[in-house]
Amino acid sequence: MNKAFALSLCLSAVVAGGVGAEQAKPAPRDPQTVAAYKQAITETYRKLFAAGMSNLTPEQLQTFWAVYPDYEKEKNTIVSARTELAKKYVEAYASEGGLQDSELTQIVNDAANYQKKNTDLRLKYFGIYSQKINVKAAARFALIDDYITTAIRMNLLGQIPLPGEEAAK
Hints:
This protein is 76% helix and 0% strand. It is mainly α. It has one domain. α1 packs antiparallel against α2, α2 packs antiparallel against α3 and α2 runs antiparallel to α5.
């Protein structure tokens, strides 16, 4: 129970900066801010997995961390694509013409595809960890990944304006 609380508290502290942010006008994102955001996500994943998987034996931890870089590389590809999609959305929102229906349709479809890719990646590594460690450790990995992914996604969504709010600019 204490680990769950610590995990929750740690993640909340990392992503709380953007939750509840003002949505009237999106702030422009410079490349350094985007890079810092991606780096913070990578570090958050590592810290929360370290805390969440700490009950494994030393041998199991060694196996977990030996596999983790492959997972992280694939995850970072999805995070980069999702971040670029959010950037594209904000730029279209802030443009003179605002969001066009075709842009919104594409963005919604792309966002759904990235969400599916996240789920597919989680299931892939659930299978790998099930074979290399055991099902309980793999399930712990999958649930922690789902928790972190959901929290980060909610943070990102909390920072972007909703379609139809362009008139408030």
